[in-house]
Amino acid sequence: MPWAVAPLVLRTTKAVKLMTVGVSLWSMRLKIRWTVAESNDVYIGLGGNIGNTSSILRSAIRSLATLPEVADLKLSHFYKTSPISDLEQSPYVNAVCKFKTTLSASHLLEKLQQIEKEHGKCPKPKNAPRTLDLDILFYGSEYHDTVELEIPHPRWRERLFVLIPLADLCSSLIIPHPQNSQQKQRVDVRELIHTFSHPVFQSVSRLDEISFIGNEYDPSY
After folding, report:
1. Full 3-state SS string of 17-62
2. If DSSP codes are grouped into helix, strand and coil, which group holds residue 131?
3. Which pLDDT tens digit goes with each residue over 44-90?
4. Phi then psi for 181, rounded to 5 degrees?
5. Other residues' Cβ atoms within 10 Å of the Cβ of residue 78
6. Structural domain tally of the chain?
7. CA angle, 79 then 114 then 120, to 5°
8. What CATH number corresponds to the domain at position 63?
9. Helix %, strand %, coil % for the chain, to 5?
10. Is the residue at 8 inside a domain?
């Protein structure tokens, strides 16, 4: 090899190695950022009572699972539940899902509202029948209290249709303390179910047609 070419080849080889190291470090930084962002588990309550609700819930879950910012989605059993309303209406089908995301809580809310709209949800009076509700129950241990967003969900402890499917996915949670959002507390979900008391009768019965408990959801289902 001519001496004039050797330094060029050497410099080129070094440049390629540096580029490879640079790409590896960049990929590592991306992975680290994703790992940090996914360290908080998100829990979403799902429900509806208009149309083929089980099919609608499955479609909504597929929409969630295929979002590029969502990973490791797990789903509870589906449950037939009694409506908590003064309005005469059909029973609901409810479930809870859990996943990790790089979306902020506010951006996640926007995505959920878009999925609701795609599945026929329109403005209705409170507690009226609906095709689909997607409610953020918890976003890690974050606390939000705005007109648009309340996290943890303000009535999650009062709803068996939240507590029972939630217990499919976790036995306890670390959430903001209700009296001091800067402090965290561990909550035993099964104990809340065991000691549950509410003036309104609530019926919850499991539907055996679906179960992905403990497994990552397959969006092709």
Report:
1. HHHHHHHHHHHHHHHHHHHHHCCCCEEEEEEECCCCHHHHHHHHHH
2. coil
3. 999 999 999 999 999 999 999 999 999 999 999 999 999 988 788 99
4. -65, -15
5. 22
6. 1
7. 60
8. 3.30.70.560
9. 35, 25, 40
10. no
